[in-house]
Amino acid sequence: MNYPPEPFRIKMVEPIRLISPEERRKAIQAAGYNVFSLRAEDIFIDLLTDSGTGAMSDRQWSAMMQGDESYAGARSYFRLAEAVEKIFGFKQFVPTHQGRAAENILSAALVKPGQYVPSNMHFDTTDANIRARGGRPINLVIDEAGDPSSQHPFKGNMDIAKLKAFIGKVGAENIPFGMVTVTNNAGGGQPVSMANLKAIAETYHASGIPFYIDAARYAENCYFIKLREKGYADKSTLEIAREMFALADGFCMSAKKDAIVNIGGLLATKDEKVFQNIKNELILREGFPTYGGLAGRDLDAMAVGLFEGLDEAYLAYRLNQTAYLGERIRATGIAIVEPPGGHAIYLDAGALLPHIPHGEFPGQALAVELYLEGGIRGCEIGSIMFAHPDPETGEMVYPQLELVRLAIPRRTYTQSHMDYVAETLGKIAKRAASLRGCKFTYAPELLRHFTARFEPL
Question: Which architecture characterizes domain 58-308 according to CATH?
Answer without folding.
Answer: 3-Layer(aba) Sandwich (3.40)
